[in-house]
Amino acid sequence: MKKLLFVLALFIFTTSFVTAQREFSMTEGDTTYVMKRYVFMHLMAGPERSQDSIEVAKIQEAHLAHLNKLSEDGKLAVAGPFEKGGEYRGLLIFDVETIEEALQLESEDPAIKAKRLEMQAFYWWGAKGTKLP
Fold first, then answer.
1. What percent of the chain has pLDDT above 70?
2. How far apart are CA 93 and CA 76, in angstroms?
3. Where are the alpha helices (DSSP H) in 2-118?
4. Rounded to the nearest 5°, which phi and psi values hold at 48?
5. Which of 70, 71, 63 lies closest to 90, judged by CA?
6. Rounded (5°) CA angle 125-13-41
7. What domains can be seen in the chain, in order of their start residue?
8. Contact 94/38 with Cβ under 8 angstroms?
9. SS3 call for 89
10. What are 94-129's pLDDT values in tens digits?
């Protein structure tokens, strides 16, 4: 019983320590990984999707400009649409401190403002420096 309580206490301490910071190191064999917390965001189809093709093109152009600006500012690490994602239209991975900050940044997106897209955000841990091939 004491061993179980010790393991539980260690887990609670470790979990609260890790969530209080955005990075931690983890060693596996002879490799050390630095894990970093990001904000993963789903972009989903919003309730207002009846705009005509000209308006959709304008919203999309402004949406892409917004994402490019976030990337240039170092706030957005990854962005892209889903192929055949249905209601799930795309994903964004923000390099920011909090979910609230990511939601605030993305709330300025013209596609969000036009209610063409909606957003849902989660914390996500990834190995720092990981690159897509």
1. 85
2. 6
3. 2-19, 53-72, 99-106, 110-113
4. -110, 90
5. 63
6. 20
7. 31-127 (3.30.70.1060)
8. yes
9. strand
10. 999 999 999 999 999 999 999 999 999 999 999 988
Q: Which residues pair with 126 in a beta bridge?
A: 36
Report the percentage of the chain scoring pLDDT > 90: 72
Residues 21 and 3: their CA atoms lie apart, in Å, by 28
> What gap in Å lies between CA 56 and CA 103, rounded to an integer?
22
- At residue 13 the predicted structure's pLDDT band, cuts being 50, 70 and 90, is very low
CA–CA separation, 97 and 104 (whole Å)? 12
- What count of Cα atoms within 13 Å lies in the side-chain half-sphere of residue 37? 16
What DSSP designation does 46 have? Answer: -
CA distance 87 to 120: 12
Q: Could you give the CA distance from residue 113 to residue 106 in angstroms, rounded to a whole number? A: 9
Distance of alpha carbon 49 from its chain centroid, rounded? 24
Residue 68's nearest CA partner among 57, 58, 79 is 79
